[in-house]
Amino acid sequence: MRCIGGICSYFNTHWVRQQFENGRRDIYEIKSLGLILWDNILFKPLNKRLTCICLDLIKRERNNELIDSQLIGDMQNYRYLQRSSIDELMTDSQEIEINNTFKLMNDSMANIQVPILNTHQKTFEQGYLSDTETFCRSESIDYLKDNHIADYLKKVDSRLKEEIHRGQLYLHKSTLPDLIAICENVLIKEHLDDIYDRWKPLLSNENHEDLIRLFKYVGRISNENRFKSETENYICQQGLESIQKISKQ
């Protein structure tokens, strides 16, 4: 698309610019027009079908089935083609000296990225986040019920890393914070009371790696001070007992 835009640069600079200056707002540079046609002819008609296929493949991948992850990645690259290309267009326009009219025209063209990204968020990304929340909630309930708290923390660690890696492959970078927040909420925050009731053996046995893992995630939850207070009390108590033992020698 960038190559075509370069070939038609004379047309863009003169005819398109002249029409825009005359008040027309239904015209675009060749590069932007190609992106709009791609959206209307390919993206919108196939979007729902592609979304269902992608989400089903991701569900199977989470259940340890072998899938072609590159296929999903390619689909998402096509979805983001317009957004990245328009961002590139705006970057190119900033590298050369242009007058206010041409800047206005480029600003007008750049507005088409908003509905495109919104469409993607309403279909694939919202479905992806919802499926992630459902899967992690079900998995965490079953795993925490049948396993020791130390094993659960290791599971949380591996699940978060896996979901972040998957999100980097399949989601736009602006959605990653939402994905991480959902995972941490479902895996940690929703189970805080249960974790608190079962974590004290980690402290008394001084399982340092598990404690580091615990505080790494609990520390991200606002207004959660029970673990910190319990640890401080334990350390103080152990210190006092050690001092008493030394004083009796």
UniProtKB/TrEMBL annotation:
Coiled coil: none annotated. InterPro entries: Cullin (IPR045093), Cullin_N (IPR001373), Cullin_repeat-like_dom_sf (IPR016159). Transmembrane segments: none annotated. One of its GO terms (molecular function) is ubiquitin protein ligase binding. It holds the Pfam family Cullin. Residues 1-247 form the Cullin N-terminal domain. It comes from the Eukaryota. One of its GO terms (biological process) is ubiquitin-dependent protein catabolic process. Belongs to the cullin family. This is Cullin N-terminal domain-containing protein. It comes from Didymodactylos carnosus.
